[in-house]
Amino acid sequence: MRKQIVVLKGALGLAVVAVLALAVIVAPVILRVSSVELHQLAVALGQGLYVAIGLILCAIFEAFNLLRRIARGTAFSTESVKALGWIKWSAYGVTLTFTAVLPLIYLWADGEDAPGLLLFALILTAAALVVGVFANILEQLLLSVVVMKRENELMVWL
């Protein structure tokens, strides 16, 4: 179990590096390479991208906390349920942010003649929604386990 947690923490660390690289490298490039007519559009896209990056980093932080609780053996607690709630709402926030900027991405892709951009944005939006729904299901499942655990702790065994 310890090895799997270390591997998952390593994967989350790589995800943090990738997200921060996106924030430091890709977002400024979007602003630089956009044409003059599309500059205001690129600024709005950059703002949406930074909001999504913040939400993704929040979800990764809570995933680290969840892995730490699993390693300590305290996974079945209300804190873990709260962490899954944060992950869920962060994923829903990313979905909402990407959905809000999809019309801008369409205009940008149309202006730059890059139809793959819109498909990529749709895939990212769907992936964030899937993560949110999965976190919601896990949150409900973990909550029911925590409730059962509390009920069992209150039982008197004869």
Describe the structure.
The chain has one domain. The model has no long low-confidence stretch (mean pLDDT 89). The radius of gyration is 20 Å and the shape is elongated. The longest helix is centred in the C-terminal third of the chain and has 40 residues. The chain is 89% helix and 0% strand. The two termini are 34 Å apart. With 158 residues, the chain is mainly α.
TL;DR of this structure?
The chain is 89% helix and 0% strand. It has 4 helices and no strands. It has one domain.
Ordered list of secondary-structure elements with their pairings:
Blueprint: H1 2-33, H2 39-72, H3 78-112, H4 115-154
Helix pairs in contact: 1-2, 2-3, 3-4
Could you name the ranges where pLDDT drops below 50 across 5 or more consecutive residues?
none
Which percent bin holds the helix content?
over 70%
- Element order, helices and strands? HHHH
Question: Approximately how much beta-strand content do the residues carry?
Answer: under 5%
Number of helices, where a helix is a run of at least 4 consecutive DSSP H or I residues: 4
The description of the largest β-sheet is: none
Counting DSSP E segments of at least 2 residues, the number of strands comes to 0
Assign an overall shape: elongated
- Arithmetic mean of pLDDT: 89
Structural class: mainly alpha
**Domain module count:** 1
- Rounded Rg: 20 Å
Distance between the termini: 34 Å
